[in-house]
Amino acid sequence: MAQYLRIGAVLLALVALAGCDSETEVIVVDCVGPDLGFDGHWFGAMEDDTGALFTLEWQVCGDRITREAVNGFASSVSGQIWPTGTGTWEGRLSDGTWLRLLSDPARRHLLVVNDLFEFAVLERGATGLPGWFLSDLDGQWRGLEAYDDWRPAFVQGSAALCGGGRCDTVADDGFAATLYFDVLDAAFGMYRGDFVDSAGNAGLAGALMSPDLLFLGTYTCPDGFNGPWDCTFGALSFD
Questions:
Q1: pLDDT at residue 88 is higher than 50
Q2: What's the CATH class of domain 134-238?
């Protein structure tokens, strides 16, 4: 009798294990298109062309933006991204909007700007905005800057030294600019101010910081600018 009970217990255990296996089956969904290294959930802040601020979320799979949400509400927008150079990307959304993007080398952060001058900084895996201080700018930053149409000839390395709301930037070709930030929207990590550069230009400056405080997306636009194509953008990692 004891032998029969032992065999029965083993059979019940095998049935239970089989049931667990069926409940934990993993289904792998292949992404459409090439793997750009951006797969996952992206979250951050966005400024539109009026200066209003929102949260922006993307779900990326392969070279496709499969889901977008603005201020927590899903939109019907999707899109596609493709590389144009080292750390530079372009894309198009299903509503016809064109995108330009700069990434850090690890592809954990993105600067995004579209032809409507909606400007965003996204971080992969982020889930919320922590709140910022002016002093979060302080330190050395290094990455890329891009201007004009972002062809390889118009993208180069750049470094910045920030402190007390001032950032001094120098590009690899020696072009320099000083950004003065005197306004901070602490809830979104949006720094606003003005700039002057070594070519004699002056105008509007802005920056968004990633939720982990390790990436800074900047723009400088001269007085009288007509759109993002007149501005210089920086994608800088904390050094």
A1: yes
A2: mainly beta
Q: Dig out the tokens for 95 from the structure.
A: 């509503």
Amino acid at the residue 142? R
Residue 183: per-residue pLDDT:
98
pLDDT digits (tens, 9 = 90+) for 24-68: 444 445 687 899 999 999 999 999 999 999 999 999 999 999 999
Does the global pTM surpass 0.90? no
Mean pLDDT across 201-227 = 98
Give tens-digit pLDDT for 104-125.
999 999 999 999 999 999 999 9
φ/ψ of residue 182, rounded to 5: -120, 0
Cα separation, 158 vs 219, in Å, equals: 13
Decide if 55 contacts 72 (C-beta within 8 A).
yes
Q: Give ranges for CATH 2.40.128.20 in the chain.
A: 134-238
Rounded Cα distance, 82 and 100, in Å: 10
Fold of the domain built from segment(s) 40-124: Lipocalin (2.40.128)
Cβ atoms 231, 219 nearer than 8 A = yes
